[in-house]
Each structure stands twice: as C-alpha cells, then as structure tokens.
Amino acid sequence: MAQPNQPTPERAAQGAGKSIPIEETRSAAEEAQPQGQPEEGVASDEPIEAEIIEDAGPSADEQVAQAKAEMQEWQDKYMRLHAEWDTYRRRTTEQREVEKARATEKLVTSLLPVIDDFERTIDYATKNGEGGLFDGVKAVHAKLVDVLKKDGVEVIDPTGEAFDALEAQAVATIDDASVPDETVSEVYQRGYKMGTKVLRPAMVTVTSGGPKREKPQEDAGKQ
User: Fold this and answer.
1) Structural domains in the chain?
2) Where is this region: Disordered (predicted)?
C-alpha cells in the first residue's frame, strides 16, 4: 500500500525557525482616496448637510400688483352694480309716471261726456234766455275744466286755424272763398289732449274753395 508523501527531514529542517513577514499594503485606489472622505459605497458616520432652498414667496412688487388688481376688480363690480341700480330706479320711475298718466287719462276720458252735457246746457240756456240757469251751469263747467287743466289736460278748439288731422276730425265741409282752404270753420265738439297724446280729437267743419294755404317755412325748406 502506497504511503502518503511526507516531507523529508531535510525539507522540514530548512523551513524550521523561519517566519515570512506580512507587510501591510494599500492598494493604489486606497492611496488615491483623500483622507477624511469615505469610499464610494461605504457608509460614513459623519452627518451629511442637505441644501434646503426655501420658497421666499411673491416679492413686494408682485404683492402690490396683486392688491391693485383685486382693488380694480372690486371697483368694476361696484360700478356695474351702481349702473344697474340707476337703470332700475329710472325704469321704475318711468313706469310709475306711465301708470299715473294712464290712470289720469282714463278718468278724464270718463269725464268728457259730462263736460259735453254742461256745454249743451249752456248753449240751450243762452239761446232760450235762461239767464239764471246759464250763469250757474257755466260756473260749474268752468270749475271742472280748471281742475282738469291742473292735471295737464288741454282743450282742443281750433276755430279759425288750419285743419290738423292729428287733433281734429272733419265731419263736414263748407264753401268759403274768403279764407284759405282747409280752415276750421266751426267746432261741433271740442277735443282734449294730455301732453302730446290726443284723448279725443275735435269734431269740426272745414272750408274749401279758398286760396291754397301757404306752407310753413320749415316745411318749404325740407322740399
């Protein structure tokens, strides 16, 4: 049986009493690494200071500009609200005036037949010599007309004037060459108006056969 190789006494004697010194060597990478800095990938016990950038917020000029913008916005809202309020107030006032005028017109229109009766009574008393009746009825008639005039009622009585189709209604024509054509000869029933609105046109007779009436200068200039 083969025996394992064993060192011969000579080899053992040569190696006895000798020690191989182990020198502490550093690699080139370790020497290149600066002192005080940890190697890459190696944790360090020293705290690492992180650079924190704080948000300083808007500058003073930006804050002033923002405040001015907000002030302008509120001012615009106030102006719009003020304008809307003025418009509402004006429309409300106009509506009240229109309603008041309509109510007055309705009342006056209802009273016109009463005034007509007064005028017929006055005419009858005048023609039949009823002096006492004439004076009393005439006084009442004048008082009633004055009350209506205070409320803006105007009497339309165009006797002797040029015929105006907007304020009078011709019920008959008569030949009369002594006056210009289309002159109101007689008023059968007086008309009434409030402002520019005619409540009732006057009923009149109009002349014909006379000379043509000269047109006003304003109308002549337009042609």
Assistant:
1) 61-151 (3.90.20), 153-212 (2.30.22.10)
2) 1-57
